[in-house]
Amino acid sequence: MYILKRLGQAFVTFVAVITVTFGLIRAMPGGPADYIRARVMRNRGSEGVSMSEINSLTEAYTNFDPSTPVYVQYFDYVTNILQGNLGQSVSFAGQSVNSLIIKAAPWTIFLLTIAILLTFAVGIVLGAVMAYREGSRFDTGSTVLSMFVNSVPYYVAALLLVYVFSIQLSIFPQSGNYAVGLEPGLTPIFIADVFYHAALPVASLVLTGFGGVAITMRGNSIQEIGEDYIRVAHLRGVPGRRIAVRYVGRNALLPMYTNLMISVGFMFGGSVILEQIFAYPGLGNYLLQGIHARDYPLMMGIFIVITAAVLICILIADLTYGLIDPRVSAGEGKEAY
Amino acid sequence: MAETNSTFDATDDRDSTSDGSAATRSELYKEWLDVAVLAPLRIAWNDWRTKTGSLIILFYVLMGTVGPYLVPAPTQGQGPQLAGPFQSMSYPLGTNKIGASLLSEIVYSTPPVLKMILAGAVFSTVVATIVGTVSGYKGGIIDSVLTTLSDIAMTIPGLPLIILLIAVFEPESPYLIGIFLVINSWAGLARSIRSQVLSIRDHSYVEVSRIMGASTPKIIVDDVLPNIMPYVLINFVNSARGVIFGSVALFYLGFLSGFSNNWGITLNEAFTNAAIYSLDGIYWLVFPMIAIVGLSFGLVLFAQGTEKLFNPRIRARHAEAVDDTAPYEE
Amino acid sequence: MPSHGKGKLGKSNRQSISRRHLLRGAAMGGAMAMAGCLGGVEGDGETFVEPITVDPTNYQFNHLNLQHPFSHAMQSDQLQRYFINDGTFESYAVNIEEFEGDTAVLKVRDDLTWHNGDPGDPVNADDLYTKLVTDAIIGDTMSTLWTDIQRDGDKSVELTLDGTINKNLFRDGLNYYWLETPFRLYKDYVERWEDATTDDEIADIRNDLRNDSFDEEKVKGNGPFQFEERDNRHLKMSLYEHHPDADNINWKNWELRKVSTDTASVLLGGEVDGIRNYSAPETVFEQAPDDLLNAQLPALWGHSLPFNHEDDDFSNIRVRQAVSEFIDRQACADNYGRLGQPVEAPSGLVGNIDGQNEPSNRWENKVSDEMAEQLYRYDDPERGRELLRGEGYQKDDDTWYRPNGDPFEMTIKVPAGLTDWHPVYQTIVDNLENEGIGAELQRIEESTYWADHYTAGNYKVASTGWTLQRSSPYYVFDMYYNIDTEFMNLDPENLEAPPMGEPDGELQSVDPRGLMEELLVAQDEEEATAITDELAWITNQTVPMLQLNEINDPVWFYTDDWEVPDPDSEKYQSKWPLWWFPRNGDMQAK
Q1: Interface test with C, best of A37, A40, A46 (most C CBs within 10 A)
Q2: CB distance B257–C14 less than 8 Å?
Q3: Which of C60, C451, C464 sits opposite A93 (nearest CB)?
Q4: Where is C275: in which H helix or E strand?
Q5: Do C514 and C478 share a structural domain?
Q6: Hey, which of A7, A63, A219, C67 would disulfide with A93, CB 3.0 to 4.6 Å?
Q7: How many CA within 13 A on the CB side of residue A160?
Q8: Structural domain total, chain A
Q9: How does pLDDT run across B105-121, given as a tens digit for each residue?
Q10: What's the total number of domains in chain C?
Q11: Where are the transmembrane segments (chain B) (predicted)?
Q12: Residues A123-182 pLDDT 10s
């Protein structure tokens, strides 16, 4: 029953998000013709468009029939989405939004998965060690460091990393997803190269993200260490390592589980800037192009894909949380007072 | 974190005293302020992180308020073009491509940034606190509706949504931009406040108030809010940091219009002028970075310093200080 | 951007470009070196690498559809070559066989063939006819010059001109035209155009044409390189040996490679062999390695400050003049960087900068010596103050007030993304602030800026270029008095200017549009100069937009693998060296 209810809730959320974004995107000033106008104005004279034509372009590049009432457009759109059809891109002539997303999504997912896993792995280990050495120099040093890196925006880190590792030292490539000329495939060299190109973008997320995780983990662990049951366990003679991992570690980790899932959404949003800096051909890159080009179907499509990803993550978190933490019950919603 | 409110259990005593005594309304508010805000701040102040953080924040506030009176406004030709830092007192941090002093640019970026931060942090904290407490305390249908709303807000990808909103509304006032930047970040905070409230609402002192016939708003303000205040404070600071990150990013991407100077614009100018490609030019990129990171470091320090209010074990060490300074504690 | 072949100006330096990481392997890390070996196509003198910033798999092959079109200058040929330094023309893909009265006959170059075979079909009259007809469908420059068109034999097309058009204007109009319209692809549109009788019908055809997309890569081209293959990182073209100039080319491939949008890194990192046009910031010039050559040619373009002619302040010619007096165009040009020179006398005459980034007086050749002298220079702030006072403005405590008592203030709108424009307008803000006129810069997202602000006439003062990249003054005046009028809310029918040679004289009614019609059909040079004199004076005095500077486009080559002329060679003074050098044998693989 709970699962059904939760699924129902997720569905409602999904439709609501579609509705909100649909409304917003329709409210955007101008349309695809604005972008054409901008391009023409910027390249005036050298590109074969006359100004007299500019106004008629407005009609040439609209992606929906303005004569249909908005609610019909909306209904058609939602029906299409639920059938998995995100429509035709306007700015990428002749391509469907689905095909663009299929092209871009794997790269973003690849980048973000590695980044999130590494961020949490590094942060959790560091946080736990800090908690155990609470008050030591290591703890103080790491805390300051963690707080400091936590206050560096990831794009600032990205720029610095590019400066140091790509421009000054030429160790890492500055942009792109793999070297030109490599045949994509499951060859070791291709895979190695893909990781190599992902190094700086991933590093900028991990370096600025692990601090926050470490601090939270440290706080949680210290709190757990102070609990009575740990003291009891010590008295009972449970081995220290076992206490550290099974008791403290596990209980300190639990509250972070939801954080992990929610950070997926944050990271997806952040990929817009990161992919821009690294010219990484992922969803964020296309989203930005879509916004500049006023390509409504593309923008909507990417919004929906990101939303769906976040929803699924939260859903998984909610549904599995009970399995991990038996104390949690699902009865918070009773009418109170 | 259900047990974090032990220090504040005194609140229900306060309730009974205030009901029975002739304390004036303003005294009540003073008490409330003291218990809910000042006492925790005093505890926090004993922490070096809070101190350093506060000093840093104070520095930026001064830079944003007094700074523009001390430093001339950035204009072209304050010095030679692309002069390096530490060469002349009239442009201590060097100049940019049009010979404007970087120090002036950084200082004059501070007031709009502070305005954005203030608007954004106030907006998200207030909305989150209202939604969180009401939904947690009331439960039932109201809870379901508010929770669904927060879920929706939480699910929409933040930065892209903000970009979209900015494209639609073209905000120019720093206050409005600040609010747009946190347009959905209240949701996460509202959810955590809700769960805090959930654990508080069944406490005996809340029960007492209820039995005594206090109205819901009164209970929320008198009994619930003081308990979550430190948490709210931390999140105020966190959303402030979010506003800096977001605004700089959007100015950097060129999505935000408006007139304000902003460190993001300086950063972008430095980057597009290839300052990153030479050792001589890197100062142009580094100073705005320091400004951004410095303020957010101050905020993080402050938040971390205050966070210990949550941790009963750490707080216990400071319990005495609380007794000395907070007359309403037992 | 995709339509790479066209003379797109790199006005923003946030374009893109990538290769020499692989190529040079300078201080490369292990994995990169490894990838470099595999990449393996580089530095072998076989492939010229040029940057793009888009995913090549997103290209479609109808260049008239503005959404991600592919059409490359090495894939098809330009109609003619124009030398900026001496103003001469040289026919290339198309020759003007006859130009007499109101008839012009254009003929396609012999031996030119499409890339659809070995060799493919010859490029013939049908294709040229298609080029001119599609141009008429979209209503571009050339189509405004003729009234009727027909095929004239196998290779030629005959145009009936709109009067006895001045040959120089006709030739200038032919610039920036490429022969990239095979009849077989555009047949339907051409036939529909022939049958169309009303403007609405043509609008429909235009609509369909703009939305159509082709995927016939090979057929599109007749230039020295033909489409070979593409994936999401690169697009490769190979030498087409049947091109008449193929013998001048001693390498095999021309490759477009997707690179970061940070062009500076791409160029300095040596990821490419050359860039057609990149207005690099100073640091890049300083940091450029020895074997990175740069040469400049005038962009025939510059920044300007357009006024809203319906604004309370700027509808007044004297206020426009006064503000022009306060603006330091030299500082604007200096702050733009080494590639800019100020406009000496803002009057719509192109030619204030030469190929060496030095000031030039080419603009004086377009008017009489006397007029060149007379055109007002706008460099006297004191006169500006007098003009403002004369119009009822007042200066108190270093602040100017409007006649109604409000402070005199303005917002200058600029596109946020075009960061290299900002220093120019920031300078104006500072000039005006120093004079006591409140000014601020508003950066607006680019699409929004052009669509909702500039072309909507929604501004007090804004920013745009002051030419359409053609050097004849006619086309500049055309921009001010025909094309951009609605953007600037300018009414050329009711324009007033002081008499020639007397800037402070009584305003008289003038008729720029009438003068332009005369200029278009002026047959002898003396007459043309006299009319140009008048138009230049009107523009100089009415200041429809204040022309600030003129800039150069730099072309970049890596000379370690490629041999190109010295940067001061006149061969660079024709748009664009990167397209002409291979065809003329001026560029060789080492």
Answers
A1: A46
A2: no
A3: C60
A4: strand C274-275
A5: yes
A6: C67
A7: 19
A8: 1
A9: 999 999 999 999 999 99
A10: 3
A11: 52-71, 116-137, 149-169, 175-193, 243-261, 281-303
A12: 999 998 888 888 889 988 998 899 899 888 888 898 889 888 887 888 888 778 887 767
